[in-house]
Specification:
Blueprint lengths: L5 E5 L3 H15 L5 E6 L3 E3 L5 H5 L8 E3 H4 L4 E4 L2 E5 L4 E4 L8 E4 L2 E4 L3 E3 L7 H4 E2 L4 H20 L4 H7 L1 E5 L3 H17 L12 E5 L11 H13 L2 E4 L4 E4 L3 E4 L4 E3 L2 E4 L3 E3 L1 H4 L11 E2 L12 E3 L4 E2 L12 H5 L6 E4 L5 E5 L3 E5 H14 L3 H16 L16 E5 L4 E3 L7 E16 L2 E8 L4 E2 L1 H5 L7 E14 H10 L1 H20 L2 E4 L1
This protein binds flavin-adenine dinucleotide.
């Protein structure tokens, strides 16, 4: 029987979700295709509303929608895409509960992975700057800002520290940077009233922008309006200013000037997804994938590219800017951006430019209509209405730390991992025992025993291969688990540790070569 053509969509943002919605409509009309969507989260984030999470104007869950409800006819894989092989026409996703490789073949591939804020190569930014792209970023920033205000309100000994705590810096004058700084400014200045020991004049909010005017995506008159309104509300807008480095205490600008701060948000530099860089596809400005007006990647009939990761020609031939409107290619709504405090700018179809309260009202109405699902619209509308009446929410929602080192328990007979699984972590036996078994041509061979104090699982990580053997618990075992990312950092920065792992690895290779106890399987 002939299989249905499978369309695999990578990315569940504006571009991926709306592409899948259109394909579902085609399926509804009788088109016989299978739709698969791979996304890191099981929800779609309505990014233009994300800055409102900082102030709590709308609830965290109100800016997201569950993808399964939006796309009932799509097979959703909540996984990270790890590899794309255009030659073999497969996509490989990250390990789930059982770390075996997960391979998805495709007939058509839709690349909609968006862009990433990439701090690599910028001194101190990976450690000290907050990105602002997803729900976690918005929540982290909100918590951090409230913590900084709490700390500042009781910091009476160290003037410098108090200054750092009350200075908030945002780098990037595009849509996201401007919306973040506007929301941050409104929020900090409003909630500061609840801290009697804080003088509003001590608060400093700074926007850094490399260009001569902010919002290069919109007409100059609107950008000037936005600049003016931000400045009038107390934001210091610094033009032709490039953020070069950061520490936990300051932002360093090109030229050497430093701004003391404990809060640095950076929405720049933004690049297309790193997975796409390695693909043998034509790239345009800023390394975005070149697509034609039908969204086909240049030179391919089976690969499609859309949203922030692609350069798609508009009707007039100019490349589409990286905005939500262009990601879903709905026509005629122009460009809009919120400036906080019930004001916005909007460039409507036909070149009509609106700013201030009317633009804000249009912005809210259009985004409300565009929010997927009636339930979500109702929640957001009521949150916005209540916001007109109630003070800003000041609760700091702490959700525990990162995964880091964790502990796991294994029962006898349980496989910790199996030969051929992907290597995603290293183990340290704390108590109990395990055996290492390798299968060659159907014959199982025991390579050794693992006891308290032994490490295992490092080979696949150091050699970037899959697991070469199965580890099976033989006596109830507790193990410490170090995820791949943390292990890689340690191995890269502690040469002695890496060498000792390599010695253990060599010893194990020797033992494997000599062979061990064998049994047929
Ligand atoms: C704070 C902020 C405010 C904004 N405000 C506006 C605005 O007012 N107006 C406007 O027009 N535009 C605005 N934008 C821009 C707009 O949101 C983007 O242009 C739009 O989201 C692009 O859609 P996309 O689908 O290409 O990418 P995204 O929406 O970023 O979606 C990419 C998806 O891919 C997933 N993904 C990435 N890597 C992997 C992986 N390895 N495995 C699995 N899944 C992966 C991500 O989780 C995400 O779901 C704003 C953006 C931000 C961040």
């Amino acid at each position: 029987m002939k299989q249905r053509p499978r369309v695999v969509i990578l990315g569940g943002g504006f571009a991926g979700i709306y592409a899948a919605m259109e394909l579902e409509k085609a399926v509804g009309k009788g088109e016989d295709i299978e739709i698969v969507l791979v996304n890191r989260e099981n929800y779609f984030v309505f990014q233009p509303m994300l800055p409102e999470v900082i102030s709590g104007t709308i609830g965290i869950l109100d800016v997201v929608s569950p993808i399964r409800r939006l796309l009932p006819r799509t097979d959703l894989h909540v996984r990270d895409v790890e590899e794309i092989d255009l030659e073999k026409k497969v996509v490989i996703t990250s390990p789930g509960f059982r770390p075996h490789p997960h391979v998805i073949p495709f007939d058509h591939l839709v690349l909609a992975l968006g862009s990433v804020t990439d701090f690599r190569g910028l001194r101190g930014l990976p450690e000290h700057a907050f990105p602002f792209k997803n729900l976690g970023d918005a929540l982290n920033l909100r918590n951090h800002v409230i913590r900084a205000l709490d700390e500042a309100s009781i910091e009476r000994h160290d003037e410098t520290l108090r200054k750092q705590l009350l200075t908030f810096v945002v780098a990037g004058g595009g849509f996201s940077g401007v919306e973040v700084v506007a929301e941050l400014n409104d929020f900090v200045r409003e909630v500061a009233r609840s801290y009697p020991s804080l003088d509003p004049r001590e608060i400093r909010i700074v926007l850094l922008h490399a260009g001569e005017r902010i919002l290069p995506e919109v007409a100059e008159s609107l950008a000037l309006f936005a600049q003016d309104i931000l400045m009038r509300r107390g934001v210091e807008v610094r033009f032709k200013t490039v953020l070069e480095a950061a520490t936990g205490d300051a932002a360093t600008l090109r030229g050497g000037e430093t701004i003391p701060t404990k809060t640095l948000v950076s929405t720049v530099p933004s690049f297309p997804h790193p997975l796409l860089e390695a693909l043998p596809l034509a790239k345009g400005k800023n390394r975005r994938l070149l697509a034609n007006r039908h969204l086909q990647a240049e030179g391919r009939t089976d690969v499609w590219a859309l949203g922030d990761c692609a350069v798609v020609p508009q009707v007039d031939g100019t490349p589409s800017p990286p905005t939500a409107q262009h990601a879903i290619r709905f026509k005629g709504l122009g460009k809009m951006g919120a400036l906080g405090h019930r004001s916005a700018i909007a460039e409507l179809p036909g070149g009509i430019k609106v700013s201030g309260f009317l633009a804000w009202w249009i912005w809210r109405s259009i985004y409300l209509v565009k929010l997927p699902g009636w339930g979500r619209r109702l929640r957001v509308a009521s949150a916005w209405t209540l916001d007109l009446l109630l003070p800003a929410e000041l609760v700091q929602l702490k959700l525990g730390g990162s995964l880091g080192v964790t502990q796991e328990h294994f029962e006898p007979g349980q496989d910790v991992f199996r030969q051929g699984d992907l290597g995603d972590r290293v183990y340290l036996v704390m108590s109990g025992q395990a055996e290492v078994w390798r299968s060659v041509d159907g014959v199982e061979e025991c390579l050794g025993q693992l006891a308290p104090g032994d490490w295992f699982g490092e080979m696949a990580l150091l050699n970037e291969t899959t697991r070469g053997a199965t580890v099976r618990c033989t006596k109830a075992m507790d193990a410490l688990i170090l995820p791949k990312s943390e292990f890689s950092v340690l191995a890269a920065n502690l040469p002695d540790l890496r060498r000792s792992f390599e010695r253990v690895m060599e010893g194990r290779r020797g033992a494997a070569g000599r062979g061990g106890e064998r049994r047929g399987s």
